[in-house]
Write a structure and sequence with these properties.
The chain contains twelve helices and 17 strands. It is α/β, with parallel strands linked by helices. The strands form five sheets. Strands 7-6-8-2-9-12-5-13 form an eight-stranded mixed beta sheet, sandwiched between helices. A three-stranded antiparallel beta sheet has the order 1-16-17, with no helix packed on it. Helix 4 packs parallel to helix 12 and helix 9 packs across helix 10. It starts with a helix and ends in a 13-residue tail after the last strand.
Length: 429
């Protein structure tokens, strides 16, 4: 491994549990404030499937079979194992595991722009011109740190969506992006091992040189920054030198039958890799998939996308359950918004944030539950509206993170971990 690529790897992949200066340091709660924000942890990790573009809720998790054709769309429905609750006919495998899901059918926010909608869902905050908020994964990284020499927060395949970033927190809590297509035959996460030309003795000399250089800066740099940099490199070397940590990324080790079950496409293999990583110790894994912005021809454009989601989601939930790991792993499916209740003149649906669906499974959630509903045409919440801050609070609570906590942003400004959100205790077992 060349020196430059190693430096890039160390910078991008080591997600230590420290900040620089005061950024990201927790603040004590105000005296006398009610302390109901922390629940016993139900989950050890989160696998977050995020579908970019805006998945049509009516054509997936909240079909309207009794609505007019221009509302219900062309796909029909299938009865699910969740008390026969209908799902889109494009989701037959998911319907077969629906007795292990929570369908949030009343999710809503106010942002019809892709960028602002992504921000709302991925951070739990409405966009603000004054503050860049951290993603849910970055907060989890900050609060819980890493395990077993693995980064706490990973994005598959990339972290190009800026709202998956750290916001006002230190970049130390940024996601490690695996890069590349996990379904490719030659897929391999780069730079997880020291170069073949660098033996153990040479690595140790480099460590000693770095330590000597760090010691020379102790008088000129704030002590916290020196400690932070030291921990940064120590954790990088720990991951590089840990066979167990490196093995978690080796999707090639999975049996052919397991790969077939998930689907040999990017989303399927991404979910399989996420399962391996959370088994190994990763706290928060995001599996991203695009292609859901269907303003035209949804009848032909959506089926191949949902076929991949259907296969991958059903396999992930089913296998985690078979392995006895679903109850400790929160699986979540989101999109930045839904689509308009009526088909437009081009046979597509436009942006619609006023109501759409989020799916949860495992992680201490109840099994087989529909929470909230949309109206007859899927246009507005009809009951139990759920907002991004509620979802953020619930995710943090399942992991045992105190949702009443405040973090320090640049300029000494305390910011609530969650603002105006509540833990959805009704969906928790």
């Amino acid at each position: 491994m060349h020196d430059q690529s190693r430096r890039d790897f160390l910078r991008q992949s080591t997600l230590a549990t420290f900040g620089f200066g005061a950024f990201g340091l927790p603040l004590p709660a105000s005296a006398g404030a009610p302390r109901f924000g922390r629940l016993p942890p139900r989950a050890d990790a989160v696998i977050h499937i995020h579908l970019e573009g805006g998945l049509s809720h009516i054509d997936s998790f909240d079909p309207k079979p009794d609505a007019p054709i221009e509302v219900r769309g062309p796909f029909g429905t299938v009865r699910s194992k969740l008390d026969g609750e209908p799902l889109s006919a494009l989701l037959p495998r998911t319907a077969a595991v629906a007795d292990r899901l929570v369908l949030l059918r009343s999710f809503a926010h106010t942002e019809a722009d892709h960028d602002r909608g992504q921000h709302s869902v991925l951070t739990g905050y409405q966009p603000s011109p004054a503050v860049i908020y951290p993603s849910l994964g970055a907060v989890v990284s900050h609060e819980l740190g890493g395990r077993n020499d693995l980064p706490p927060y990973v994005c598959i395949p990339s972290a190009q969506n800026r709202w998956l970033g750290t916001g006002y927190l230190s970049t130390a809590f940024a996601p490690f992006a695996v890069g590349g297509n996990p379904a490719a035959s030659n897929f391999k996460v780069q730079d997880l091992a020291a170069g073949k030309d660098v033996d153990a003795a040479r690595r140790q000399r480099r460590k000693d040189l770095l330590a000597a250089m760090d010691a020379g800066f102790t008088g000129a740099v704030h002590a916290d920054a020196v400690v932070a940099v030291k921990e940064y490199y120590e954790q990088a070397w720990a991951m590089i030198e840990s066979p167990t940590a490196r093995a978690a990324f080796e999707i090639a080790a999975e049996p052919a039958g397991t790969k077939d079950r998930y689907g040999k496409h990017s989303l399927g293999m991404g979910c399989l890799l996420a399962r391996r990583l959370v088994q190994g110790g990763v706290r928060y894994a995001v599996v991203g998939s695009g292609g859901y912005d269907h303003h035209t021809g949804i009848n032909s454009a959506l089926p191949p996308r949902l076929a991949e989601l259907d296969q991958a989601l059903a396999a992930l939930v089913g296998e985690l359950d078979e392995l006895g790991q679903l109850d400790r792993t929160l699986v979540m499916v989101t999109s930045e918004f839904g689509r308009t209740p009526r088909l437009n003149g081009d046979g597509g649906r436009d942006h619609w944030p006023r109501v759409f669906s989020v799916v949860l499974a495992g992680g201490g959630c109840k099994r087989g539950l529909v929470f909230g509903s949309s109206d007859a045409n899927g246009a507005e919440p009809a009951s139990e509206p759920v907002h991004p801050a509620d979802l953020a609070a619930t995710v943090f609570a399942t992991l045992g993170i105190d949702v009443e906590k405040k973090l320090m942003a640049p300029g000494g400004r305390p910011i609530n971990l969650v603002r105006d959100g509540r833990v959805l205790t009704e969906v928790l077992a």
